[in-house]
Protein backbone atom coordinates (compact mmCIF):
# COMPACT_ATOMS: atom_id res chain seq x y z
CA UNK A 1 0.00 0.00 0.00
CA UNK A 2 2.85 2.35 0.86
CA UNK A 3 4.50 1.69 -2.51
CA UNK A 4 1.22 2.40 -4.27
CA UNK A 5 0.82 5.74 -2.46
CA UNK A 6 4.42 6.70 -3.22
CA UNK A 7 3.87 5.71 -6.84
CA UNK A 8 0.74 7.83 -7.09
CA UNK A 9 2.55 10.82 -5.54
CA UNK A 10 5.47 10.47 -7.95
CA UNK A 11 3.10 10.11 -10.89
CA UNK A 12 1.15 13.18 -9.73
CA UNK A 13 4.23 15.40 -9.65
CA UNK A 14 5.52 13.95 -12.92
CA UNK A 15 2.25 14.91 -14.64
CA UNK A 16 2.30 18.40 -13.09
CA UNK A 17 5.86 18.97 -14.32
CA UNK A 18 4.93 17.51 -17.69
CA UNK A 19 1.92 19.86 -17.99
CA UNK A 20 4.04 22.85 -17.10
CA UNK A 21 6.81 21.91 -19.53
CA UNK A 22 4.40 21.19 -22.38
CA UNK A 23 2.48 24.41 -21.91
CA UNK A 24 3.91 27.45 -23.69
CA UNK A 25 5.21 30.14 -21.34
CA UNK A 26 4.25 33.13 -23.47
CA UNK A 27 1.85 35.56 -21.78
CA UNK A 28 -1.22 33.61 -22.81
CA UNK A 29 -4.65 33.52 -21.30
CA UNK A 30 -4.67 29.86 -20.22
CA UNK A 31 -7.85 28.03 -19.40
CA UNK A 32 -8.26 24.34 -18.59
CA UNK A 33 -11.06 22.14 -19.86
CA UNK A 34 -12.19 19.12 -17.88
CA UNK A 35 -12.64 17.07 -21.06
CA UNK A 36 -14.14 14.07 -19.31
CA UNK A 37 -16.84 16.31 -17.84
CA UNK A 38 -17.50 18.56 -20.83
CA UNK A 39 -17.93 15.62 -23.22
CA UNK A 40 -21.24 14.82 -21.44
CA UNK A 41 -22.76 18.31 -21.70
CA UNK A 42 -24.87 17.66 -24.81
CA UNK A 43 -27.72 15.32 -23.88
CA UNK A 44 -25.60 13.50 -21.22
CA UNK A 45 -23.97 11.46 -23.99
CA UNK A 46 -20.15 11.42 -24.28
CA UNK A 47 -19.16 13.22 -27.49
CA UNK A 48 -15.80 14.58 -28.55
CA UNK A 49 -17.68 17.22 -30.58
CA UNK A 50 -18.86 18.81 -27.33
CA UNK A 51 -15.23 19.32 -26.27
CA UNK A 52 -14.42 20.62 -29.78
CA UNK A 53 -17.20 23.21 -29.42
CA UNK A 54 -15.77 24.35 -26.07
CA UNK A 55 -12.25 24.61 -27.51
CA UNK A 56 -13.48 26.67 -30.48
CA UNK A 57 -15.51 29.03 -28.30
CA UNK A 58 -12.60 29.58 -25.93
CA UNK A 59 -10.15 30.24 -28.76
CA UNK A 60 -12.62 32.72 -30.26
CA UNK A 61 -12.68 34.51 -26.90
CA UNK A 62 -8.89 34.77 -26.78
CA UNK A 63 -8.08 31.89 -24.45
CA UNK A 64 -5.42 29.23 -24.83
CA UNK A 65 -7.25 26.04 -23.86
CA UNK A 66 -5.61 22.97 -22.39
CA UNK A 67 -7.73 19.83 -22.14
CA UNK A 68 -7.37 17.06 -19.57
CA UNK A 69 -9.12 13.69 -19.82
CA UNK A 70 -9.51 10.72 -17.50
CA UNK A 71 -7.87 7.53 -18.77
CA UNK A 72 -11.24 6.00 -19.70
CA UNK A 73 -12.29 8.90 -21.96
CA UNK A 74 -11.10 7.14 -25.11
CA UNK A 75 -13.36 4.18 -24.39
CA UNK A 76 -16.31 6.54 -24.05
CA UNK A 77 -15.85 8.18 -27.45
CA UNK A 78 -14.18 5.46 -29.53
CA UNK A 79 -14.43 2.19 -27.57
CA UNK A 80 -10.65 1.98 -27.06
CA UNK A 81 -7.91 3.73 -25.10
CA UNK A 82 -6.77 7.01 -26.64
CA UNK A 83 -3.42 8.70 -25.93
CA UNK A 84 -2.80 12.46 -25.76
CA UNK A 85 -1.88 12.66 -29.43
CA UNK A 86 -5.09 10.86 -30.47
CA UNK A 87 -7.25 13.33 -28.56
CA UNK A 88 -5.17 16.24 -29.85
CA UNK A 89 -5.85 15.10 -33.42
CA UNK A 90 -9.57 14.66 -32.72
CA UNK A 91 -9.70 18.18 -31.26
CA UNK A 92 -7.45 19.80 -33.84
CA UNK A 93 -5.14 21.00 -31.08
CA UNK A 94 -1.38 20.86 -30.50
CA UNK A 95 -0.43 17.72 -28.58
CA UNK A 96 1.18 19.80 -25.83
CA UNK A 97 -2.26 21.15 -24.89
CA UNK A 98 -3.98 17.78 -24.34
CA UNK A 99 -3.36 15.35 -21.48
CA UNK A 100 -4.83 11.94 -20.70
CA UNK A 101 -4.20 11.06 -17.06
CA UNK A 102 -2.88 7.58 -16.30
CA UNK A 103 -5.13 4.58 -15.70
CA UNK A 104 -6.36 4.23 -12.13
CA UNK A 105 -5.38 7.76 -11.18
CA UNK A 106 -8.05 10.40 -10.52
CA UNK A 107 -7.71 13.33 -12.90
CA UNK A 108 -9.23 15.90 -10.54
CA UNK A 109 -6.13 16.65 -8.44
CA UNK A 110 -3.99 16.89 -11.59
CA UNK A 111 -6.45 19.31 -13.17
CA UNK A 112 -6.74 21.42 -10.02
CA UNK A 113 -2.97 21.52 -9.47
CA UNK A 114 -2.34 22.51 -13.10
CA UNK A 115 -4.96 25.27 -12.83
CA UNK A 116 -3.26 26.58 -9.71
CA UNK A 117 0.20 26.47 -11.34
CA UNK A 118 -1.03 28.24 -14.48
CA UNK A 119 -3.34 30.61 -12.58
CA UNK A 120 -6.06 29.34 -14.90
CA UNK A 121 -9.78 28.83 -14.62
CA UNK A 122 -11.46 25.48 -15.33
CA UNK A 123 -14.32 24.76 -17.71
CA UNK A 124 -16.39 22.05 -16.00
CA UNK A 125 -19.70 21.38 -14.31
CA UNK A 126 -17.91 19.51 -11.53
CA UNK A 127 -17.89 21.35 -8.19
CA UNK A 128 -14.85 19.41 -6.89
CA UNK A 129 -16.38 19.17 -3.40
CA UNK A 130 -14.04 16.30 -2.50
CA UNK A 131 -11.05 18.51 -3.28
CA UNK A 132 -12.24 21.86 -1.90
CA UNK A 133 -10.21 21.54 1.30
CA UNK A 134 -6.95 21.23 -0.64
CA UNK A 135 -8.03 23.58 -3.44
CA UNK A 136 -10.23 26.26 -1.81
CA UNK A 137 -10.13 28.35 -4.99
CA UNK A 138 -12.85 26.09 -6.43
CA UNK A 139 -15.28 27.94 -4.15
CA UNK A 140 -14.42 31.32 -5.71
CA UNK A 141 -17.11 32.55 -8.07
CA UNK A 142 -15.90 32.34 -11.65
CA UNK A 143 -12.98 29.99 -11.02
CA UNK A 144 -15.06 27.10 -12.31
CA UNK A 145 -16.76 27.97 -15.57
CA UNK A 146 -19.96 26.00 -15.88
CA UNK A 147 -21.73 25.46 -19.16
CA UNK A 148 -24.02 23.39 -21.28
CA UNK A 149 -26.22 23.52 -24.34
CA UNK A 150 -29.37 25.52 -24.85
CA UNK A 151 -31.32 25.06 -28.08
CA UNK A 152 -28.30 23.36 -29.64
CA UNK A 153 -25.84 26.14 -28.78
CA UNK A 154 -23.00 25.93 -26.27
CA UNK A 155 -23.05 28.46 -23.44
CA UNK A 156 -20.36 29.13 -20.85
CA UNK A 157 -20.91 31.03 -17.60
CA UNK A 158 -17.65 33.01 -17.50
CA UNK A 159 -18.57 35.29 -14.59
CA UNK A 160 -20.49 32.85 -12.42
CA UNK A 161 -23.72 34.85 -12.73
CA UNK A 162 -25.80 31.91 -13.92
CA UNK A 163 -24.58 29.78 -11.03
CA UNK A 164 -25.36 32.60 -8.59
CA UNK A 165 -28.87 32.98 -10.07
CA UNK A 166 -29.54 29.25 -9.73
CA UNK A 167 -28.49 29.30 -6.06
CA UNK A 168 -30.77 32.28 -5.47
CA UNK A 169 -33.73 30.49 -7.10
CA UNK A 170 -33.13 27.39 -4.98
CA UNK A 171 -33.19 29.46 -1.79
CA UNK A 172 -36.48 31.11 -2.76
CA UNK A 173 -38.15 27.72 -3.37
CA UNK A 174 -37.50 26.56 0.20
Strand order of the largest sheet: 3-2-1-4-5-6
CATH architecture: 3-Layer(aba) Sandwich
**Shape from CA axes?**
globular
- Secondary-structure element string: HEHHEHHEHEEEH
As a percent range, the share of strand residues is 15-25%
CATH topology term: Rossmann fold
* Secondary structure: helix percent: 40-55%
- Major beta-sheet overview: 6 strands, mixed
What is the gist of this entry?
The chain is built from 7 helices and 6 strands; from the N terminus they run αβααβααβαβββα. With 174 residues, it is α/β, with parallel strands linked by helices. It has a single domain (2-173), classed as Rossmann fold.
Describe this structure in words.
This protein is α/β, with parallel strands linked by helices and 174 residues long. The chain has one domain (2-173): 3-Layer(aba) Sandwich (Rossmann fold). The chain is 44% helix and 17% strand. The chain has a six-stranded mixed sheet, with helices on both faces. α1 (2-22) crosses α6. It is globular and about 50 Å long. The relative contact order is 0.15.
Amino acid sequence: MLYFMIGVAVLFWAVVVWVLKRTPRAPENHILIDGSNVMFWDDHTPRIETVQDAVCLLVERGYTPNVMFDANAGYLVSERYQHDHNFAQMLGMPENQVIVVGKGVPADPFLLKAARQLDARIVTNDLFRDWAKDFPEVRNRGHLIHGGYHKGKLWLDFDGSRQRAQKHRRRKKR
